[in-house]
Amino acid sequence: MGVKQVGENRYRGQIGRYFEEFQIGDVYEHRPGRTLTDADNIHFSLMTMNYHPMHCDAAYAANSEFGKLLINSGLTVAIVLGMTVADVSGKAIANLGWTDIKLTAPVFAGDTIYAESEVLDKRESSSRPNQGIVKVRTVGKKADGTVFMIFDRTALIQKREGNTLDEAANY
Question: Predicted confidence band at 2 (pLDDT cuts at 50, 70, 90)?
Fold first, then answer.
């Protein structure tokens, strides 16, 4: 997301935002995008033991309404979630949950996907004075603008003051 000066002519890359930096209504466009391949799909499907033939048997998929392999939705959720880390959860203590995951269009090998997240809500943690809770809605879009996924996510985010993680890890 940014850099922090750590010495004369020396800078360190930073990931994520502190709780105070989130503003309700802000939208983060996550970049870079990711072009998905058949290899990504087959490796992920077999690694996660999802042997559904729509993900790993091209002859079977050729006879489906789509006429080709579908990218495993578990893979698209994982990649879209990963795209959000630099902007949304790089300073998170924990993910608290994902809700209302909707898969609204198929994704195929060769599709390039992007994501964006809108801050829906934020509040101070009632039990952790140096942390807050942030809720975002993330939308996955293909390069042509087709929305293929939407989900809400809540995370426990470190506040700037009282931050011990970044200092302990020399961040």
Answer: confident
